[in-house]
Amino acid sequence: MAQSWSSETPRSETPTLNDENDTEFLKKCAAEFRWNDLSKDYVMDIGCGAEMGFSKALLKEYPKVSALVAVDKEPTVFLKAGPFDQRLHLCVGDIEERNSLKQYEGKISKVISKGTFHQIKDKELAFQNVYRLLKPGGEAAFLFCLECSFYRLLTSMLKVPKLKAMFQGIYIENLYPKEHGKQYYIDMLTKIGFQNVRASEELKRIPFSSDEQCRNYLFEIYKDEFRVQSEMVEEFKDEAFQICLSTSGRYLRKPYYRASNLNLCGVKPLESSDSKTEQT
């Protein structure tokens, strides 16, 4: 019996969009699909990021893995990749651009993506490309954000004329549509051709250790998004913190980060002509 993907565990640590431990997510994938030693598997990590946390965790837990392709669309990600591992292949590619990964189509046993798909605009296209990458019988697992308190915070900050005038970043309207929940993505993967599609939502509440930690953290994540003069830093921290409290309140008497994450997985059928993906 595969372990449940539903949890709500408060933790006092610095929140991030990818707060779940890489090894923890890896173990969930392994339990869900009943992985063995992966010695015959070609695995792909989509959106590996500069730290390549999930890729490193997989190489450590599965030293016999046949090969692992770490994919990111930003070439700079691999500039500090660290010591070369012969099992690891680094690939600059965009899952929304089919041609950038076409060389791997039909060759991948397992596609994993953690903390990436909430940033993808055309998710259906991306899922279709994942389907094409998989061998018949191949498995795919995704973990991404459905709703995030920091997005609500930014939305509220941009309603303040002074802060809006300072904003120089990118804001995407309706980034997390309410109607795009668990069933929406189950239906999407099923339409593409995946079988045995499963999904669960999990709520994460992560308190900051103190008000001051929250103030400093908000400045760190937004200092490149807003033009903040040095003499305005403390005022900016205060305004961001007060808006954070007004939009999210407190949890365990502390300011906190809140996110709803989706765990989504499916299998490409053993007999597949890719007809569904070719029609789109």
What's the helix and strand layout?
Blueprint: H1 22-33, E1 42-46, H2 53-61, E2 67-72, E3 88-92, E4 108-114, H3 123-133, E5 134-148, H4 149-157, H5 161-166, H6 182-192, E6 195-207, H7 211-222, H8 233-248, E7 250-251, E8 254-267, H9 275-278
Parallel strand pairs: 1-2, 1-4, 2-3, 4-5
Antiparallel strand pairs: 5-8, 6-8, 7-8
Helix pairs in contact: 1-2, 4-8, 7-8
Radius of gyration equals 20 Å
Run of helices and strands:
HEHEEEHEHHHEHHEEH
Q: Helix segment count?
A: 9
Q: What is the mean predicted local confidence, pLDDT?
A: 89
Strand tally: 8
Q: Measure the end-to-end span.
A: 36 Å
**Global geometry:** globular
Oligomer: single chain
Structural class: alpha/beta
| Sheet of most strands | 8 strands, mixed
Percent in strands? 15-25%
Q: Low-confidence segments, ≥5 residues, pLDDT <50?
A: 1-19
The helix content, as a percent range, equals: 25-40%
Protein name: Methyltransferase domain-containing protein
Organism: Nephila pilipes
Domain Methyltransferase: 40-141
